[in-house]
Amino acid sequence: MNTALPVVFPAQRPLTRWGVLRRARITVENGQLVVRTHSGAHAWPVGPEGVASAIHLPGRLPTAFRIGWRDASNGTIDKFGGCLHLLDGAGQAVACLAPSDWVTTGGRPATLDRPDARPTTNLDPGAGVDYLERSGLGDLLRHAGIPVHTAPDGQEPPRAPEFAGTLRPGPRTAGSVWLMVVLALLVLVLLARVAPNEVVRDVMVSVPFLTLALVATVPAVVGGFAGRRAGGTVSLTVLKPIPGIPVTRVFLDRSALRLTEEAIELRTAQNEWRLIPAPADPVNGVREAVVFEDAGRPWGVALADGRGTVHAFLHWDTWFAGDPQLVGLSDFCQRAGLGLRRQRSAAFPGGQPQDRTARPWKMGEYGFDDIFALGSLTPGATLFALPVALLGSVVWDVEWTPFFPVLGAAFAIGVVPYVVRGAYRKWSLNRLVQPQAVGGFERSGGSRFDKQGGATP
User: Fold this and answer.
1) Total structural domains in the chain?
2) For an engineered disulfide with 410, which of 44, 98, 123, 210 has Cβ 3.0 to 4.6 Å away?
3) Nearest-angstrom CA–CA distance, 255 and 294
């Protein structure tokens, strides 16, 4: 397999933010360090005139990082991952990176000691001391000839006049800025009490509901279609789950591990998309698939790089129990150029024995990552239009003719799609499907495990 350009990908994203994964990455191209975000690219030559070194401050947030309404959807920076300052030849910072933004799993860097650790940023102190290395940032910079140091005193370096700030990949969740729309709606309804006349009152208590429905639902749907377009990659080989226990229909339909020209992609039943450096990446690429066994019984498979960082963990019962000879996995590894081995380990040291992506999810578990960005928030707020309509028909003397059509349109846009989507998810997508084991038959181009755990053609 040809050597690929070394790369660091950002953390996984939900469907409405797949465009961020398509654009954001860190590479070294033509002697320049290039940091791409969802909104643009920053490039510096490697050397004294650009980026000459880097200094890592573990355990603290960069002072250049601020959270406001406009960037709240970017997600929090894990302070245990610290910040990495890129320095010019004079020792001044030209930009800052948060290593926790660039861990592919989206949270705690998992290792072969705890491959099933659930990605989370709720960590104990010291748990993120290796974020710099586990994210691949350290090796990428050193490979480019940029030395990386740890700040001995924990003090941030001075900033260059053209300091680019904290460069983050882009939003990780749907736009929480629409919470302001809900607040504005409530304020307008209250202000309607002091409206100068009935027509102004009717407009002020009806139009905001339609506005809320439009600004919350339309961008979410557009973002969903845009995400699917961004995720339209061409697969060289695909690994699909073959479960041995009941799983949801959507898990069977969507879950897949794909090899493309650029990366290995993991897609989940909940439309989470993760980009993993491909085996052809000489610095950060995954090197092997490790089958974990406890007392001779397999319980999971991990994709790990040369540092022992786990970029994907797949539960045995939901992915491979229907193919105990691992014909599909062996074929995938052979085509992708991955090693394949067994490793003895106590089952589920990370405390995640169940594959939560394969079971039915409740509305609250989707949260702000759903294709309809605000989940139950938008229909809940829009439902306040019903008592307003009741007041208009029973108490008020409505003089503005579009009053009831506006409220009806708000209800149709802000409530009906969520009800239909919820019903489809509950009765179709989240319906449990019985396993269909494939046993140990051969597949074209596949391979089996030998008794020592090695892959054989």
Assistant:
1) 2
2) 210
3) 25
Is residue 83 located within the same domain as residue 31?
yes
- pLDDT by residue for the chain (457 residues), tens only, comes to 567 899 999 999 888 788 899 999 999 999 999 999 999 999 999 999 999 999 999 887 767 665 544 444 566 677 778 899 999 999 999 999 999 999 999 888 899 999 998 776 544 444 445 899 999 999 999 999 999 999 888 789 999 999 999 999 988 765 544 555 555 566 666 666 666 777 777 777 777 778 777 877 776 677 667 666 766 788 999 999 999 999 999 999 999 999 999 999 999 998 889 999 999 999 999 999 999 999 999 999 999 999 999 999 999 999 999 999 999 999 999 999 999 999 999 999 989 999 999 998 876 666 544 444 444 556 666 666 667 776 677 667 776 778 788 888 888 887 788 778 778 888 888 899 988 633 333 333 333 333 333 333 3
For residue 167, being part of any structural domain is answered with no
- According to the 3-state scheme, what is the secondary structure of 77-91? CCHHHCEEEEECCCC
239 is a domain residue: yes
SS3 sequence of 136-184: CHHHHHHHCCCCEEECCCCCCCCECCCCCCECCCCCCCCCHHHHHHHHH
**Do both 332 and 208 map to the same domain?**
yes
